[in-house]
Amino acid sequence: MKVNLNMMERAQLLQIMPSEGNRFNRKIVRKALDSISYSEAELKVLGAYYEYACPSNTSDGKGRMVLCDNTGFFAEPPTCGKHNLAMMPTGNLHIPPSPLLYSECKDIHLGDEALRVIHERFEILNGGEKLTDVLIALEAKIFPPEEREKE
After folding, report:
1. What digits encode the pLDDT tens for the residues 96-114?
2. For the chain, what are the domain ranges?
3. To the nearest 5 percent, what fractions of the chain are helix, strand and coil?
4. Can you list the positions of beta strands (E) in 8-150?
5. How far apart are CA 101 and CA 94, in angstroms?
6. Integer-rounded Cα radius of gyration of the chain
7. 38: DSSP letter
8. Distance from C-alpha of 59 to C-alpha of 139, rounded to nearest angstrom
9. Helices 7-16 and 112-127, interaxial angle, to 10°?
10. What is the pLDDT of residue 151?
11. Beta-strand runs (E) in the chain
């Protein structure tokens, strides 16, 4: 199935995807995540910044290790001013607000099993009363009401 999603909808879908599972569905989820995720070119256009943190840890004098608190979002990998070490990416990403988040769309190809996993996630959110208006609209876009009535 092909779904046309803007960048914000893709971010919302990425947030609800499962972070763990079994051997079978992890492969399916990884493939779906690759399809939904932003490309490097898209991130560059959006002006995205990655979070970096200093990898240094020192003893606090009481035998406990303390991580350096030097972190921040940067366009290029920085060096920690306290320890003169290359800072490491944390995996967090900051995307500044932009009209492009809503105007730039991409066709996302999702297989039957990926759709089943996504449907399960919406059902879990619904059962826990965690659905927002934004997520309900996204669900309706991926699973149009007329399609759900056929089930």
Report:
1. 999 999 999 999 999 999 9
2. 2-46+97-150, 49-94
3. 45, 25, 35
4. 49-53, 57-59, 65-67, 71-74, 88-94, 105-109
5. 13
6. 20
7. P
8. 49
9. 70
10. 56
11. 2-6, 49-53, 57-59, 65-67, 71-74, 88-94, 105-109
Strand partners, 52: 72, 89
Q: For position 149, what pLDDT does the model report?
A: 57
Phi, psi of 11 (to 5 degrees): -65, -40
With left for phi above 0 and alpha for psi between -120 and 50, is residue 114 left, alpha or beta? alpha
For 122-145, what is each residue's pLDDT tens digit? Answer: 999 999 999 999 999 999 999 998
Cα 74 to Cα 11, 68, 91, 151, distances in angstroms: 20, 17, 12, 47
